[in-house]
Amino acid sequence: MTSRRLRLAGLAALSAILLTGCSMGSTGSDSEMGEPDVGVEAPADGGVAPRDEEPFTEDEQAGSIDEDRSVVTTGWMAVTVDDPIDAAAEVAALVTGADGRIDSRTETPGTDTQQARATLVVRIPAARFEDVLADLRELGDVDSVQLDATDVTEQTQDLDSRIGSLQTSIDRLRALLAEADDVGDLIAIESELTARQSELDSLATRRDQLADQVAYSTLTVELLSEGLAPEAGPDDFWSGLAAGWNALTTFVSGVLVVIGVMLPWLVLLAVLGAIVVGVILLANRGGRRPPGGGDGGGASGSTAPGDAAGGTGAGRTPSGTGGPA
């Protein structure tokens, strides 16, 4: 009986605790829901109470969003003008007047076969880019315009975050370096500090370059003159005759020029050919023998003994014949 009473008493105490907690929770929630906001009077018609500050307009919201964004603007513009060289000077004046700068400038004067042109790569402050672009349109006839905008907000935020983390790490390493007493610890901390400082400098350089691209828009301006007019062809007999005569004289002049260029070489080749032929003739003439040389003397010498023999025989025959007589 005693144990049973103890169990019943415990259950009764637990039930009382649970009921107390539930009642406190419901009371708190009712008080929170029932109490009105302090300092705000509810309208009589049950509508929403007006705020002390008016909400932002669309323009103000757009402006706040644009200020938080980092945008790199680049573009290309082609304009036909009367004199590209003078127009290039006007472009340079407009850009420098807007606190911009000229990164590169190329000018090509016109010739009989080539039109004049000028090309400039300019950097314009982003806040004044549209105004300068409108002024550039007034220089002549705009042939084409191309603009590109690249949002680099995430890159900028990432660089800022990494730079902040590295700076905090470097500060901690410097504090450890000031407290370190062991030589090995000093060397290890200095090595790590040098590596992180180098990485920090690299990230800072990238952030500065990106910030410069955001602050100054890049625009390539190409200035061209009017195209060269094609030459008119002959449209009657006399103009055709004149064109044919001009073509003939041009051809003859070209042939004479070629002959004039080749003539010294032809003369040189003729002289060299004559020298070679002369040497060959002299060599052939020196190799021949005269016809009345030692062979004629030998023939006469051989004939003389025959004649002597013949004369002797002839003398003998008559005497022999006369002998018997």
Account of the protein in words:
- Helices cover 64% and strands 14% of the residues.
- The protein is α+β, with helices and mostly antiparallel strands.
- It has a 5-stranded mixed sheet.
- It is flat, with a radius of gyration of 59 Å.
- The model is unreliable at 1-65 and 293-325 (pLDDT under 50).
Identify the notable features of this structure and list them briefly.
5 strands; 325 residues; 5-stranded mixed β-sheet; alpha+beta; 8 helices; disordered C terminus
Note the topology:
Elements: H1 2-34, H2 58-68, E1 71-80, H3 84-97, E2 101-108, E3 117-125, H4 129-137, E4 141-151, H5 153-179, H6 183-215, E5 216-224, H7 237-287, H8 294-322
Parallel strand pairs: 1-5
Antiparallel strand pairs: 1-4, 2-3, 3-5
Helix pairs in contact: 5-6
Radius of gyration: 59 Å
Which band does the percent of strand residues land in?
5-15%
Q: State mean pLDDT (0 to 100 scale).
A: 75
- Main β-sheet description: 5 strands, mixed
Through-space gap between termini: 223 Å
Uncertain spans:
1-65, 293-325
Q: Count of DSSP E strands? A: 5
Give the helix proportion (percent range). 55-70%
Question: What is the N-to-C succession of helices and strands?
Answer: HHEHEEHEHHEHH
Shape: flat
What is the overall number of helices?
8
Please list the strands of the largest sheet in the order they lie side by side.
Answer: 2-3-5-1-4
Described by its quaternary structure, the protein is single chain
Structural class: alpha+beta
